[in-house]
Specification:
Elements (H helix, E strand, L loop, with lengths): L11 H15 L41 H14 L6 E2 H10 L4 H7 L7 E2 L2 H8 L9
Antiparallel strand pairs: 1-2
Length: 138
């Protein structure tokens, strides 16, 4: 049985040539899109310019009443618990954290949750374990 080796087959040498071609295309000072409508367009002259206002409540960075650590902890809880868990009780939260390989400090915090309460979202969990949360003005 004879195997045919066509010129369209790839091998290490052909892979290197293709990588060099692609690298050249990716670093070119032009778009790789063929159609003009895919190009990003600069903002028009009639577009509003964002500006800071002294009347604004926005301080940047963290919500009012929270530290960066509070934001980080709440975000970690959210990342390890997901969105489809709620409403959830203490045991479900702890099991989910462990199943999703959450850091031990999050599991320890979750173990302090009241045993017979159900939590509707990560905000209510954060408040129950003592993480500062933002408060919205009415």
């Amino acid at each position: 049985m004879v195997m045919e080796h066509g010129t369209d087959k790839t091998g290490p040498a052909r892979d290197d040539v293709m990588k060099r071609q692609l690298r050249g295309q990716m670093t070119a000072e032009r778009s790789l899109w063929l159609e003009e409508e895919h190009e990003l367009q600069p903002a028009g002259e009639d577009q509003p310019v964002a500006a800071w206002s002294p009347e604004s409540d926005f301080r940047g960075g963290t919500p009012r009443g929270m530290t960066e650590e509070d934001v980080g902890l709440r975000s970690e809880f959210a990342r390890h618990l997901g969105r489809s868990l709620y409403p959830a009780d203490r045991n479900t939260i702890i099991e989910t954290l462990r199943r999703n390989n959450a850091p031990d400090r999050l599991v320890t915090m979750a173990e302090r949750l009241p045993a017979h309460e159900r939590f509707g979202n990560v905000q209510s969990i954060a408040e129950a374990v003592g993480i500062a949360t933002e408060h919205w003005r009415s």
